[in-house]
Amino acid sequence: MARPIEVFFWPTPNGHKITIDLEEMMLDYVLRPVNIGAGDQFKPDFMRISPNNRMPAIIDPDGPGGEAVSVFESGAILQYLGRKSGKFYPAGERQRVEVEEWLFWQVASLGPMSGQAGHFKNYAPKLVDDPAKLEYAQRRYLNEVNRLYGVLNHRLAGREYLAGEYSIADMAAWPWTRNYVSYDQNLDAFPHLKAWHERMKERPAVRRAIDKGAALRAKALAEQPPEELARAARILFGQTAASVDDAAKQASAIKPI
Ligand SMILES: N[C@@H](CCC(=O)N[C@@H](CS)C(=O)NCC(=O)O)C(=O)O
Q1: Which domain holds residue 23?
Q2: pLDDT in the model for residue 58
Q3: Of 24, 119, 158, 166, whose CB neighbour count within 10 A is largest?
Q4: 116 with 150, same domain?
Q5: Which pLDDT belongs to residue 234?
Q6: Residue 70, domain member (yes or no)
């Protein structure tokens, strides 16, 4: 009998890509919370499967050849699970290329640009003395998200899903459009994107994944001491190579699986 896939997860857009995918593929999984505000992404056990100290990551105990395998990077995880399940990642080369174009577009553009837009709009103003200094960075990234939403909107004109059939590309992109308000966007300006957004939101597997993430977040917030917020900002926004060196030193004592 297949053993559950361990999902190293926190309820953010990158985390939700994987839980949506697992729900859609009906694969058994167990959540291993990685509280990124508390610094769990630097723990040696996590770093040995995710050397970039970012979640999500997975361990599939029934990997290739029946041996456990770990995978980090959400795009690589989606491709791995697509190959494993044979679902939502077509085998035909022409269709696969189309899925990969939009999957890589998400991991290289929509995700990072939205992440920076959200950072400069929502977090940075609380961290700097003079918020006026943020104006250029805010405009740069919010404009870029606006452009990317325009790209999505054009792509989805006359199409239900990004690569024709519903695929891992949609599962990757949708979580990054979910909180469009926090990137100052109005979906009424993007009718095809809006229709796709609603279509995705109504999928039972998507709803289950979002509900599980919300339950985990509610539990973490209820247990979070009040000083945690300032500490989380230091952990999340003050990282340099030295942070990786320190964590890697601790992790190097443990053999990779
Ligand atoms: N390229 C990575 C990005 C993952 C990523 O940025 N994860 C964020 C949460 S959305 C994280 O783990 N942040 C921890 C930190 O910033 O220290 C992927 O697609 O998996």
Answers
A1: 5-88+224-251
A2: 98
A3: 24
A4: yes
A5: 80
A6: yes
Q: Tens digits of per-residue pLDDT, 57-69?
A: 999 999 999 999 9
Rounded Cα–Cα distance for residues 40 and 96 (Å): 35
Q: Give which of 242, 250, 139, 156 is closest to 199, Cα–Cα.
A: 156
Interval between CA 255 and ligand 1 midpoint (Å): 23
How much distance in Å is there from the Cα of 56 to the middle of ligand 1? 7
Asked whether 41 lines ligand 1 (CB < 6 A), one says yes
Number of structural domains, the chain? 2
Question: Mind listing the pLDDT tens digit for each residue in 181-200?
Answer: 999 999 999 999 999 999 99
Cα 118 to ligand 1 centre (Å): 14
- Output the CA angle 175-219-69, nearest 5 degrees: 60
Instruction: Note whether residue 115 is domain-resident.
Output: yes
∠ CA 92-96-97 to the nearest 5 degrees? 125
pLDDT in tens, 79-88: 999 999 999 9
Asked if residue 107 belongs to a domain, the reply is yes
**CATH number of domain containing 178:** 1.20.1050.10
Residue 115 has pLDDT above 80, yes or no: yes
From the CB of 110, is ligand 1 less than 6 Å away? Answer: no
Q: What is the identity of the amino acid at 125?
A: P
**Which residues are CB-neighbours of 134 under 8 A, at least 6 positions away?**
120, 124, 125, 128
Q: How many CB atoms lie within 10 A of CB 127?
A: 14
Please give the pLDDT value at position 221. 84
Residue among 72, 76, 79 nearest 99 (CA)? 79
